[in-house]
Specification:
This protein has about 260 residues and is α/β, with parallel strands linked by helices. It contains 9 helices and 7 strands; from the N terminus they run βαβαβαβααβαβαααβ. The protein has a single domain, classed as NAD(P)-binding Rossmann-like Domain (Rossmann fold, 3-Layer(aba) Sandwich). Helices cover about 50% and strands about 15% of the residues.
Length: about 260
């Protein structure tokens, strides 16, 4: 399938690892130029170098998308480098409070400012140019956790659900101006060094049971999600608006 992404510019947050990194490499292979953002400079620069090796232009912007000044600096740098932003992939999430055994209030604050407001405020900065050009595509990365009641990780579930609702309502507003907004909701995604990798070492029986419960019999990979993101950004999906694409090997059992 010809996605028609060559020569377009995408801004990706949370681009230094996992789904963000895989998305950057997938879009580079599709011929896109990239603005890559994350807080970790070293890993981000490694991803940027991989994009450059694929023959595409890329700029790394270390930034915390939970902070408005950083969001504004990120968009300003992108426009300075490329003059326009054709696509936004809002993938950043707040995980630090989990590692710090922080209280629930810190989890709510972190996910609210990074996952939700990071997506919303970047959209507010980028969408006017898209609407003026009557062309653009935005993808928010949520989770199947935002579609069900887990009974735990309430902040993660609540904010990922809010992100799905935000994508839907913004899609309705922007569609008449030729700008599409969609959401991707991955299930369990595994790669070396990931949270699932650490949990597999610490709680092997528990993780094995979760993996066995997935109808496809395994966790997904970042590349599998990245290919779906590329599709939603492309003209191949130009009649897909306000949709939440579940990418989970059948893990989510709800009827929608």
């Amino acid at each position: 399938m010809q996605l028609g992404l060559e020569g377009k510019v995408a801004l990706i947050t949370g681009a230094s690892r996992g789904i963000g990194r895989a998305t950057a490499l997938t879009l580079a292979d599709e011929g896109m130029d990239l603005v890559l953002a994350s807080r970790g400079r070293e890993a981000l620069e490694q991803v940027t170098e991989s994009v450059l090796e694929r023959g595409r232009r890329a700029v790394a912007v270390p930034a915390d998308v939970g902070i408005q000044a950083d969001r504004e600096r990120l968009v300003s740098k992108a426009l300075e480098e490329f003059e326009r932003i054709d696509c936004l992939v809002s993938n950043a999430t707040s995980l630090d409070p989990y590692y710090e055994d922080a209280p629930q209030s810190a989890l709510w604050d972190g996910h609210y400012h990074v996952d939700l407001l990071g997506a919303v405020r970047l959209t507010e900065l980028i969408a006017p140019g898209m609407r003026e050009r009557r062309s653009g595509s935005i993808v928010y990365i949520s989770s199947i956790a935002g579609m069900t009641g887990l009974g735990f990780d309430h902040a993660y579930v609540g904010i990922k659900a809010a992100l799905i609702a935000t994508g839907k309502t913004m899609a309705v507003e922007f569609a008449p101006d030729g700008v599409r907004v969609n959401v991707v909701a991955p299930g369990g995604i595994y790669e070396p060094g990931s949270d699932w990798d650490r949990m597999r070492r610490d709680y092997p029986d528990r993780v094995a049971a979760i993996e066995a419960s997935i109808p496809m019999g395994r966790f997904g990979t970042p590349d599998e999600v990245a290919r779906c993101i590329a599709f939603l950004l492309s003209d191949a999906s130009n009649w897909v608006v306000g949709h939440t694409l579940v990418v989970d090997g059948g893990q989510f059992r709800g009827i929608r």
